[in-house]
What does this fold into?
Amino acid sequence: MQEIKSSDELLHENINYERRDVKPFYIAAIGVFMIVSAVVIYAAVWGLYRYLNAEDTNRGPRPTMIEAKPTGPPEPHLQVDPIGDLQQKRTATNQILSSYGWVDQQNGYIRIPIDKAMDMIATKGLPSVQGMSPPVNTGLKTTTENPQEVQPRSRP
It folds into this structure.
């Protein structure tokens, strides 16, 4: 069994740290740099505080909430009554769709009620426009006798 040595015997005079790994000068230089940097930053913040404080003092006293004029929220405002707004919009739209009026009086365009317009199209049909091509053949065979017999055209 090994003998336990005292702490005096464990010290060796020839054992030391490696001097080429860490140089105490660089550690001290970093510490001094950090202290100088902290002082410079403190001075800069202190100067900025004094400058901003002087600017604030030059503006004069701020109005209190009682003295300040109330301002509304920025645009766009929220709807206070969305259901009422929708009903109002529908009423205005229905009024336009069910009444006569001018669309462009200079060029002679008028507005007629939608029910009247649908009746006119149902009885007279759509007007033909010059320069329009004939309708495109969709490939459906239609008959007026039995609408159930509509068959799609087979594809090649």
Notes: The CA atoms of residues 15 and 67 lie 79 Å apart.
